[in-house]
Structures are given as C-alpha cells and as structure tokens.
Design brief:
The protein has 194 residues and is mainly beta. Strands 2, 3, 6, 8, 10, 11, 13, 14, 16 and 17 form a ten-stranded mixed sheet that branches. Strands 1-15-12-9-7-5-4 form a seven-stranded mixed sheet, with no helix packed on it. A hairpin with a 5-residue loop joins strand 4 and strand 5. The protein is globular, with a radius of gyration of 16 Å.
C-alpha cells in the first residue's frame, strides 16, 4: 500500500508499481548488542530521546541500540515512547519475524536527505501512534539524483498501522510519503501527507 505525495488518506490503494531503485539500507551498527538495563522496569515503556548530539535511551529493554553514525535501531517487540529530533539519521525497526512493536511519537521530528527517515525492515507488525496533543514531522528530502530515493519517508516491509489522537505530518520531496509492502491501516489520527 502506498500513500503518494499529494494524495489523501481516503484514497489509499494497494499498488504494484514500478520500484524506482532498490532501497539501500544503512549497515553501520554497533558491534556490542545492548542488554536490558539492570534497573529496567517492565511496567514502563522504553524511552528514546532523539538528539543529533547523541540519542538518549532510558529504561532500555535491551531492544534499542544507537549506531556510531547516530542511526537508532529497535530490535525487540515492545512499546517505545519517542521524542526529540534528528537530521540525516534514521529510525530503523529490525526485529524477529514474530515481533510486534508500538512507536509512540511524542513530538518527533526526523528529517533526512540520505535515507528513509523511518525504515521498518522486519518483524510481524509495527504500530506508529501520534500521541494526543503532539505534532510529529517526518521529512524525506531525498531527490531524484539520490539512488536511494525509492520507497517512502515512512518505508515498511511489514504490516503497518498508523493511529493516535495527535498529528503526523509526512513530507516526501521525491517519492512516496508512506510506502509499505504489506497491509496499511490508518485510523483516528490527523495525518497530512505531502
């Protein structure tokens, strides 16, 4: 399912269009796998504060790792509270095939001219929830000259649900705003795709 630039969510259609170029995924990852914090509270969500100077993770369940290049990887099924902003870095979900994760956006800004700002590579399902009272901006500044401009600003290879009571603004300068190779479900939130 694809939400193309200029379309409205009421006209979401499943398509089998031509892919512009194979998506090149970031490969720089830390060599040490994270483990759950010794004081991890499984009754509270893992919190991710996105920062260009260094993303901060609190109450890490062992499923969040930050690469040397600043890319943030979510590798475990859980619920994550995400806030803050990053530029020319990506939030990447790469879980086991049976894993499901919820990304609660709580005032997020992710802008990239290098790769998809949000890239969901593997797992069973991801829910992106725009939290009530927040505005969240996902901006893909890649251009036609960028050989990794295929896919979308939010690019998913698995089932994707976008929901919440907040606002999610998705801007793609060249290709799709939202692109998923599996099912796409949208409900409740205010979603603006350009």
């Amino acid at each position: 399912a694809v939400v193309a630039p200029g379309s409205v969510t009421e006209e979401i259609k499943k398509t089998a269009g031509t892919t512009l170029a194979p998506t090149v995924q970031p490969t720089v990852q830390p060599t040490v796998q994270p483990t759950a914090e010794s004081n991890y509270d499984n009754n509270s969500n893992t919190q991710i504060l996105l920062k260009d100077s260094g993303t901060v993770v609190k109450n890490n369940n062992g499923g969040v790792r930050v690469a040397d290049n600043g890319y943030v990887y979510i590798t475990k099924a859980a619920e994550y509270d995400i806030s803050g902003s990053i530029t020319n870095k990506s939030l990447i979900v790469e879980m086991s095939d049976s894993d499901k994760a919820t990304l609660n956006l709580k005032g997020v800004s992710i802008t990239s001219s290098i790769a998809a700002p949000i890239s969901i590579l593997s797992g069973d399902k991801v829910e992106i929830s725009a939290t009530s009272g927040t505005t969240n901006n996902i901006t893909d500044n890649r251009t036609v000259s960028n050989n990794d401009a295929s896919g979308g600003a939010i690019d998913s290879s698995i089932d994707l649900e976008i929901k919440g009571k907040g606002v999610l603004n998705v801007t793609a300068e060249y290709n799709n705003g939202i692109d998923t190779k599996d099912d796409l479900e949208i409900k409740n939130l205010t979603l603006k795709v350009k």
